Each structure stands twice: as structure tokens, then as C-alpha cells.
Amino acid sequence: MKKGFFYQTALGTFYIAEEYAAITDMKFVTATIENEDEIVETLLIREAFMQLKEYLNGLRQLFTLPLRPQGTVFQNEVWQILKTIPYGETRSYGQIATAICNPHASQAVAMANNKNPILFYIPSHRLIAANGSLNGYTGGAAMKKYLLEFEQLHKNK
């Protein structure tokens, strides 16, 4: 059974969950989350939150957590590539499609990105359209813009 916990930050409330000793979910809480997870703060969930706090304070650029996103084979392939995008950098949907040897799959990459269940730790905010637009982020375009500018500001620290 999954275990999860809620945390308040300056960016809002987040929900972090784990199962089988790996993080499975990290979401913005914009409404009541209805689930059957046990609400408890485990050591791994607490560590995930501590790393998130360090990131949000400009002190961490790389997460070191066991992750187990739940999705299709294609989604997991996309999410694995997203984890390789360096802090403070972006890639286009087309670049990710090419990286997974499917250069015509830009739209499918965008859909997989939209289903990313582990925000921040799998940095879907670093994925942008070829024309530079910031649409398609679960937290909204304003949050995506903030995160990208934040990373640029803290990139060389």
C-alpha cells in the first residue's frame, strides 16, 4: 500500500507518496486528493521533502532519491530522458522524441510529460515547445516560468 504525506511550501501544498521504498508521486495539491494511500510521513518521504526544500532554497540541483513512476513503457522512457536534462537547461519535445529514437513523437512526448507523476524529481518543467512557449505544465505556465528563471538564477552557485 502506498504511503503519502502533505507538505506546505512557499509555492503551495505538495503531496509526496512512496511504495516499495521508492517515490511514486509528487504533486501540486490544488484540490482534495482522493486516494486510498495511508497518510503517514515515512523516512523516505521526509527525505524527499528535505531535498525539495533544499531545491526550493537554491541549495540543491540534483535529486538523489529512488523513483518508481507508474506509467506505460513509453511514458517511463520519456521520464528517464527528462531526468537527464541538466539543472537550468531546457529541451524541446522534439529533442526528447529524437533522444528516444522516435523523432515524429513530439506530441506523444508532450502527453507523457503531462502525465509525469513525480514533479520536480522528474523535471518536466524543463521541457518546452520548439518555439520556446511554456505551455503544458501541470503547475501552469506561470509556475513553469518561475522554476526555469529560478534555476537560471541559481545555476552556477
From TrEMBL:
<dbReference type="GO" id="GO:0032259">
    <property type="term" value="P:methylation"/>
</dbReference>
<protein>
    <recommendedName>
        <fullName>methylated-DNA--[protein]-cysteine S-methyltransferase</fullName>
        <ecNumber>2.1.1.63</ecNumber>
    </recommendedName>
</protein>
<dbReference type="InterPro" id="IPR008332">
    <property type="entry name" value="MethylG_MeTrfase_N"/>
</dbReference>
<keyword id="KW-0489">Methyltransferase</keyword>
<dbReference type="GO" id="GO:0006281">
    <property type="term" value="P:DNA repair"/>
</dbReference>
<dbReference type="InterPro" id="IPR036217">
    <property type="entry name" value="MethylDNA_cys_MeTrfase_DNAb"/>
</dbReference>
<comment type="similarity">
    <text>Belongs to the MGMT family.</text>
</comment>
<dbReference type="InterPro" id="IPR014048">
    <property type="entry name" value="MethylDNA_cys_MeTrfase_DNA-bd"/>
</dbReference>
<dbReference type="Pfam" id="PF02870">
    <property type="entry name" value="Methyltransf_1N"/>
</dbReference>
<keyword id="KW-0234">DNA repair</keyword>
<keyword id="KW-0808">Transferase</keyword>
<feature type="domain" description="Methylated-DNA-[protein]-cysteine S-methyltransferase DNA binding">
    <location>
        <begin position="74"/>
        <end position="152"/>
    </location>
</feature>
<feature type="domain" description="Methylguanine DNA methyltransferase ribonuclease-like">
    <location>
        <begin position="6"/>
        <end position="69"/>
    </location>
</feature>
<dbReference type="InterPro" id="IPR036388">
    <property type="entry name" value="WH-like_DNA-bd_sf"/>
</dbReference>
<keyword id="KW-0227">DNA damage</keyword>
<dbReference type="GO" id="GO:0003908">
    <property type="term" value="F:methylated-DNA-[protein]-cysteine S-methyltransferase activity"/>
</dbReference>
<dbReference type="InterPro" id="IPR036631">
    <property type="entry name" value="MGMT_N_sf"/>
</dbReference>
<dbReference type="Pfam" id="PF01035">
    <property type="entry name" value="DNA_binding_1"/>
</dbReference>
